[in-house]
Structures are given as C-alpha cells and as structure tokens.
Amino acid sequence: MTTTPYAASPHVAALRSVALTVPDVAMAEDFYTRVWHLDVAARTEGAVYLCGTGAAHHLLSLHAGPVTAIRDVTFQARSLAALDTLAGTVVQAGGRVLAPVAAITEPGGGMGLTVADPDGRVLRFVHGDAVHADAGEVPDRPIRLTHVVLNSRDVASTQAFFEQALGFKLSDRTRIMAFLRCGSDHHSVALGDADSDSLNHIAFLMPDLDSVMRGGGRMRDAGYAIEWGPGRHGPGNNGFNYFIGPYGVVIEYTAEVQQVDDSYPTGMPENWTWPPGRVDQWGISQPPSPALKQAQRAVFFTPAG
Description:
Layout: E1 12-22, H1 25-35, E2 39-44, E3 47-51, E4 60-64, E5 69-77, H2 80-92, E6 96-103, E7 111-116, E8 122-127, E9 144-152, H3 155-166, E10 169-173, E11 177-181, E12 189-193, E13 198-205, H4 209-221, E14 228-232, E15 239-244, E16 250-255, H5 290-295, E17 299-301
C-alpha cells in the first residue's frame, strides 16, 4: 500500500535552496565544502552550486557580488500546474511576478517561476529540476535544507502572504516568531519579528544529533565558534548548533525536526514559555551571542527587479 505524503500546501512541496551573493566565491566554496561538508554540484562563471546527500540538485548557490546578500529562496513546486497557479495567487495576495513560468537556464534546470512578495523578497518555484541519487543519511554531512528563517517588519502581513499565496499553514506562533509549514516538517519557513526584512538564518538537516555535535566540533576546530547551542528548540523540537559562517551568514546544523500533519495543535505564545534563564528545552546553552544576534539582521535581499 502506497501512502500519499502529507501536503500542508497544495502548491509547494518543500524548501529546495537558497542563493547568496558573496564577495569571494572561492573562499566561501572552500568553507562550505571542506568545513560544512557540502559537495559541488555544478559551476558557472562567477557561481558555484552546492549539494547535500539528499536528492535536491543543490541546497546553496554562491554568486559573486560586491556585498553579502540573499538573492532568492527557491521552493519545489508540487507540479507544473502548481507553477501556473502560484503565478496567479501571488498577484492576488499583493506580490508580483518577476519572471513567468519558463525553462530554467541555470544548473538544475526544470521549469521555474520567479516572484517577489509584497516586501520585495525574491522567491522562486521550480518543478522538474534535476535530482541526484539520494544517498540519505551520511554521517556528518547535511542531507537537505530543513528551513530558512526570514526577518519581517510585519510578521502578520508576511504570514498572510505565505498562507494565501503559497498555501503554507501556521504550525506555531511564539512571541517573536511564526513557524510555517508546506509539508510534514514542522516548518520550512519561519518569520522573525524584526525592524527589517532580512535573512535570519539557514538551517541544514543533519542525519542525527551526533552529526550536529561533531559538526560543532569541526567548526570550532576551523575557528568558528558555536554562537548558540547545543540545544533543543521548543517549536519543531529540533536539536541545534548555530554559527556565523563566512561573510556573516548565520547557518545552523539541526536534526530530529518534528514531523506533523493536520492533527498538530497550533501553538500560541502562551504555549511556548521558558523558566527564567532558559532559551530552549535542555537549558544547558547560554543565550544566543551578541554577535549572532547582530548577524541575524545583517544580510538583506538583493532588490527585486
């Protein structure tokens, strides 16, 4: 008997990749391959595409540019028809289409749609792109992206766009963050209350907690401190270690992300409180470092065309 995967969104299946602009692609590539343990999937002039051990063609692309910025966030669409549907629902929800449904010319290929949300964040949706043989769980190597956290000056408005245009559902709302899902992962996108629309962090799924911890040791050996962790979050129940990577990008190793469906009771801020001095379930980690808090608000989207 075949079980149909749970679909929170009728249009979007998963978070696929994030594209960043960095001043030195070669230096960033060295870090993300040698230390962070991604692999090179493809290269073009001025860019490199990096994959994990899962099926996604790439999880992260690095593009040459004068400053560190987030170019776009790419999601996997559930079907080719979903791309056409999204082109309409995005506009209805106050966004705009930057590039209509067409063949993608960058590595990975497939058909794609590029849009901007009402605040100018660039989002892409792809279907039929190339995939790799899924190696699954390889110790100490990221499998895929599990979520991206985006800061918002108006979380309620941004949440409404993701729900109305993209079909996401709210899993939990804490005092400072809204957690949204498109599939069975507790969240693929989280929206953080902030004074700017920027990148908070990118989370890479590791096979297990041991890999999260060994990754923390490897990062420390390479001169990158654990800026928050180890710990276990409330919403999502995932174990974590946070770091500031090259050019100030905040990245997270995580594992054991909670799997949910429509029976999951949506939590509100009063459901997610900690005793004084605690910032996670375990209570062994110090709060996020001042450097991390600053970095979580310092990388902005490239202006939409």
